[in-house]
């Protein structure tokens, strides 16, 4: 009975369109843009053939209704969510989600408001994903968290004809007390690392000095040259008078040379 009434109304609509030609064309011809599709319902049922467009499409007056669906990528901000992490730290996280309608007919017939439902699902997904992460993981693995959230959202919105293209975490805010604790911890770590580096430098310098001392111990002339080099450096940098003790080794050398010369003169005199 219902099918018969539908066929009868459809036939009457066609007769009305033909009788009122060409004025009826102003009501029957519709246009959708390149990025849009039209989902047509005839007597409450989805017209076979899927969504229409882009360009011109035809509807029957009185019995056909249609809804336009935008296929472009749409973005929305997920409001800041107060989340308790796995290690019992309360953080405030907000994100941005990019999605598009992949199936216009399904997005109209399976869900009342696909964009609004996607926003609500994004909020719950953000809380569920971050609830399984520690604070350190939340701060360091943001890309991985965004990828997990995207996959979960895409799986949840697939029956709605929605495709999630991208998810980005915008900001992670932690309490001020935790910020001070983290800053103090980071400063302590830097100080400890600086002390280790300084100790390693001193150790290397000590080894170098020991090697230099061993070389000078084996070569007394090298010690004298180093002494003279030090005097030259200080005299070039300082304008004041500096008194240094004269090395006894040099005196011993001169004494040996003088005594040797005296012996030679004595032998020659004899």
UniProtKB/TrEMBL annotation:
The chain crosses the membrane at residues 12-32. Keywords: Membrane, Transmembrane, Transmembrane helix. It is found in: Membrane. It comes from the Eukaryota. Its main location: membrane. The keyword Metal-binding does not apply. InterPro entries: Band-7_stomatin-like, Band_7, Band_7/SPFH_dom_sf, Band_7/stomatin-like_CS, Stomatin_HflK_fam. Pfam families: Band_7. Residues 27-186 form the Band domain. GO terms for cellular component: plasma membrane. Coiled coil: none annotated. The keyword Transmembrane helix applies. PANTHER family: AT06885P-RELATED, BAND 7 PROTEIN-RELATED. Belongs to the band 7/mec-2 family. This is Band 7 domain-containing protein. The lineage of its organism: Eukaryota, Metazoa, Ecdysozoa, Nematoda, Chromadorea.
């Amino acid at each position: 009975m219902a099918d018969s009434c539908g066929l009868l109304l459809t036939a009457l609509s066609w007769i009305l369109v033909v009788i009122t030609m060409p004025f009826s064309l102003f009501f029957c011809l519709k246009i959708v843009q390149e990025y849009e599709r039209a989902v047509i319902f005839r007597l409450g049922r989805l017209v076979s053939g899927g969504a229409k467009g882009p360009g011109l499409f035809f509807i029957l007056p009185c019995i056909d209704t249609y809804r336009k669906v935008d296929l472009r990528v749409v973005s929305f901000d997920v409001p800041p969510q107060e989340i308790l992490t796995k290690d019992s730290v309360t953080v405030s996280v907000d994100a941005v989600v990019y999605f598009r309608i992949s199936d216009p007919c399904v997005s109209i017939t399976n869900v009342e408001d696909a964009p609004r439902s996607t926003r609500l699902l994004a909020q719950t997904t953000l809380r569920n994903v971050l609830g399984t992460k520690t604070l350190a993981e939340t701060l360091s693995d943001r890309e991985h968290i965004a990828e997990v959230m995207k996959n979960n959202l895409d799986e949840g919105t697939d029956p709605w004809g929605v495709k999630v293209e991208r998810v980005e975490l915008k900001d992670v805010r932690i309490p001020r007390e935790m910020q001070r604790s983290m800053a103090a911890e980071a400063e302590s770590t830097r100080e400890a690392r600086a002390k280790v580096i300084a100790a390693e430098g001193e150790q290397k310098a000590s080894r170098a000095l020991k090697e230099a001392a061993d070389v000078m111990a084996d070569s007394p002339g090298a010690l004298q040259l180093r002494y003279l080099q030090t005097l030259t450096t200080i005299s070039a940098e300082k304008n004041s008078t500096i008194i240094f003790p004269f090395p006894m080794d040099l005196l011993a050398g001169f004494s040996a040379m003088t005594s040797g010369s005296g012996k030679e003169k004595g032998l020659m005199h004899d």
